[in-house]
Structures are given as structure tokens and as C-alpha cells.
Design brief:
The protein is α+β, with helices and mostly antiparallel strands and 252 residues long. The protein is 50% helix and 16% strand. It has two domains: 3-133, Beta-Lactamase (2-Layer Sandwich), CATH 3.30.450; 139-247, Arc Repressor Mutant, subunit A, CATH 1.10.10.
């Protein structure tokens, strides 16, 4: 791009009000979440879909925050690791299949793309990304309709005491077959997926609610409070009580 075109682009951008360059486009794109982060991983721009998925009612609640302010560390660590890779190498990540927050406040499988953004000095200054919900007409589900049945069953029943045997019966496959399919497509097992959904649900309640921990364990499908404690320690390296003390925020 020659200097005149660069100047025209800069001048055009400076004439726009904040929030009109890309956010408006993605606000009318169903199932799409859009975000821009600075070099420190803070949200600088985003669309309404992302705000909703993180439980924010106003832009001020998200602007300048990081993934750790809204997402349990077992998910946020993965997002931040990918962010740092994009910003350190200057290489984009294209349609990575990953667990990310959804409008229903349950982690769902999404395809995420992240690209580096450059400052006037030519150095990476941040990144921009889009993530979209994996839908029934995506090739992954069209090629393996039974995996979609399994995902929908788990999402609708994680708060119950479901097991891998329950999942296998829903899709009419052996336990070993459904486990192999999960590992091949999602790089995880059905049990680990169920655990992550339950942990996310428990973390949200611990962050924003006052429900007793024993009741949260029951509502989120854990066998009992001791079971939830073990999962918290193994995945988050702290107990539910310590998590609440560290991250609790008023709903108001």
C-alpha cells in the first residue's frame, strides 16, 4: 500500500466514532463473537454477542478487562496462551476448535480465528479475533451426527449424575467408540468435557452468587461436595471456598 492510501485509511478511521469500524458489522452477525485485545490481553473492542456471553450488560463492564475477569482459569489459560502465541510470532490462528463461553453461560464448542494487529512502528500491538458457534451444518457434525447428539445430551443433562454409560446409550455406541471419537474430534474425553462444563457452572455461581457450596455441587451435577472439591483442586489448584473468596463479585 502506498503512502497516499495509508494516509487516506488513517484519516478515514479518525473520522469515525468509536465502535463503528467493525463492532457494528459483527453485532448483526448471528453466532459470531468479535473482540480486539491490546498487547496486555485487555479487551479494547467487542460486539454485543461477546458481552452477552460473558454476562456484561454495558461496555464499561468489559472494556479493559481480561479473560481471567470472566472465565475460569482452565479456559482462560488456553485463550491467553493462544493470544501470546499470535502476538509473539505474528502468525494467525485459523478456525481452532475450542471450548468457549456461549450465550447460555455454558462452554460450547466454537471455531476461533485470531490475527495480529500492528502499530505504526511496525510492531505487534494486539490482536483481533472472531469466534463462532459450531452449528449442526458444520462438517464436523455432518460427518459425525452421533457426536452432536452426545454434545446436546451432555449440555442438557450435566446438572444430573450422568456418566459415560449414559452418553454411550444416547448415541447407541460403545463406551470405547464414543471415547475414541471425542478424542479424535475434540482432543478430550466425554468425562473431561462433562467435568469442564460442571466446573464452569460452579465457578459462575461461586463468582456471582451466595448459594451454599454444598448446594452448588448438587445443582451442577457433582456426586457430592467432596467430589467437587477434588475436581477443583485437580483442575484449578484451589478449593471452591478459596475460589469464591478470590473471585466473588456482586451481581450488581
Amino acid at each position: 500500500m502506498d503512502d497516499n492510501l495509508k494516509k487516506s485509511l488513517i484519516e478515514f478511521g479518525e473520522t469515525l466514532q468509536v465502535g463503528q469500524f467493525m463492532e457494528t458489522l459483527f453485532n448483526v452477525s448471528p453466532n459470531m463473537q468479535y473482540f480486539v485485545k491490546n498487547i496486555n490481553g485487555q479487551f479494547m473492542a467487542f460486539n454485543n454477542n461477546l458481552m452477552k456471553s460473558l454476562g456484561c450488560k454495558a461496555p464499561e463492564e468489559l472494556f479493559g478487562k481480561t479473560d481471567y475477569d470472566f472465565t475460569p482459569s482452565f479456559l482462560a489459560d488456553m485463550f491467553v496462551r493462544d493470544d501470546k502465541r499470535v502476538m509473539s510470532t505474528g502468525k494467525p490462528i485459523i478456525e481452532k476448535l475450542e471450548l468457549a463461553p456461549s450465550d447460555e453461560l455454558i462452554p460450547d464448542w466454537r471455531l476461533t480465528t485470531k490475527i495480529p494487529l500492528y502499530g505504526k512502528d511496525g510492531k505487534v500491538a494486539g490482536l483481533a479475533g472472531v469466534t463462532r458457534l459450531l452449528k449442526g451444518n458444520d462438517p464436523i457434525y455432518l460427518g459425525h451426527p452421533e457426536i452432536r447428539v452426545a454434545i446436546e445430551f451432555i449440555r442438557g443433562n450435566y446438572m444430573k449424575k450422568i456418566s459415560i454409560d449414559d452418553v454411550s446409550r444416547q448415541v447407541n455406541m460403545s463406551v470405547s467408540s464414543i471415547e475414541r471419537l471425542f478424542k479424535r474430534i475434540f482432543k478430550t474425553t466425554p468425562i473431561k468435557y462433562i467435568k469442564k462444563i460442571r466446573l464452569n457452572a460452579a465457578c459462575r455461581e461461586l463468582r456471582f452468587g451466595n448459594t451454599p457450596i454444598s448446594k452448588i455441587a448438587d445443582q451442577c451435577g457433582f456426586y457430592d461436595q467432596s467430589s467437587m472439591n477434588r475436581d477443583f483442586r485437580s483442575v484449578l489448584n484451589l478449593t471452591p471456598l478459596h475460589y469464591r473468596k478470590k473471585y466473588w463479585r456482586s451481581k450488581n
